[in-house]
Design a protein that fits this description.
Distance between the termini: 60 Å
Helix content: 55-70%
Largest sheet: 3 strands, antiparallel
Radius of gyration: 21 Å
Structural class: mainly alpha
Shape: globular
CATH topology: Rhopdopsin 7-helix transmembrane proteins
Length: about 290
């Protein structure tokens, strides 16, 4: 016979459900207001466009994972899946979305640095290191978690928030690289370039949005030993999906005329959707 949740646990289940539904509503609203841009800018891209698939995966993995939360049962109400299995599902979806957002940011940074092979190698190493740390941390989190009757996490025996650390490290380095390029470009040209300004703005906003979820999650891990840390997961998934899609869509709103340099002797890379435009003096060409 399955355990009957106590009144106190039942009171916890209701806000958990409300948080999950609110995150799903937010992402559904974001989907509705940006669907026109998706059709206009994303659907028309060729099938070999990496940006197209990154957008679609970020959009629909995020939306699908939140819908999955409701079908599986946020409070352990589904008898076909264990509490540990449900937590594994949540952390796996979180890691998939984090990886997609990091890939989007890395493509932007790589373009900013003229597709420098050394930057590409560094970014690949950074991604691999971040994933190793995150996977070890997430595996430890799942295996050392303790649950109550409604599958709420009551304690995690993992000593450190590895997942949070790896995400902050990777995205923080990407933001620093973007800021460095922006400062150097401004020093060389003495004026702002819209595409680089946009990349700095979106990169900063995305970083802050993700940190707004990761910081409370880390506090739960450290202060409360992970108790009820799963309440942050639905909104973490929603913010990741929204941030990743916005990083791509916002790039489409700039006219190619904004890419033209105002001075000579500039070399910079610009990424829109499926093209990278490189400028050396005033010679432009497109690369698929």
């Amino acid at each position: 016979m399955s355990a009957i949740p106590s009144p106190s646990l039942a009171n916890i289940d209701r806000p958990l459900t409300s948080i999950s539904i609110s995150a799903l509503c937010f992402l559904s609203w974001e989907y509705c207001i940006t669907f026109g841009d998706e059709v206009k800018y994303i659907w028309s891209k060729p099938y070999d466009s990496p940006i197209k698939w990154l957008f679609l995966l970020t959009r629909y993995v995020g939306l699908g994972s939140l819908v999955g939360n409701r079908f599986i049962g946020i409070g352990g109400n589904n008898p076909t899946i264990s509490c540990r299995g449900f937590l594994t599902y949540q952390v796996t979806m979180s890691e998939v979305l984090v990886t997609l957002v990091e890939l989007i940011l890395m493509i932007r940074v790589h373009a900013l640095y003229n597709r420098d092979r050394r930057i590409a190698a560094f970014l690949a190493l950074l991604l691999a290191a971040g994933k190793v740390v995150a996977i070890i941390g997430l595996d430890s989190t799942v295996s050392t978690s303790h649950f109550n009757e409604i599958c709420g996490v009551t304690r995690i025996d993992t000593p450190l928030a590895y997942f949070s650390f790896s995400t902050v490290m990777v995205e923080g380095i990407l933001l620093i690289l973007t800021l460095v390029k922006c400062i150097r470009t401004f020093q060389a040209t003495r004026h702002s370039i819209p595409i680089i300004t946009l990349m700095v703005r979106d990169g900063t906003m995305g970083f802050l949005a993700i940190m707004s979820i990761l910081i409370p999650t880390s506090l739960f891990l450290v202060v409360k030993h992970g108790a009820f840390v799963s309440i942050m997961t639905p909104w973490f998934l929603a913010v990741l999906s929204c941030a990743g899609c916005r990083l791509i869509i916002n790039m489409q709103h700039l006219s190619p005329d904004n890419y033209l340099p105002q001075t000579a002797n500039q070399t910079f890379a610009l990424i829109t959707s499926q093209i990278i435009i490189e400028s050396t003096n005033t010679d432009f060409h497109e690369i698929r």
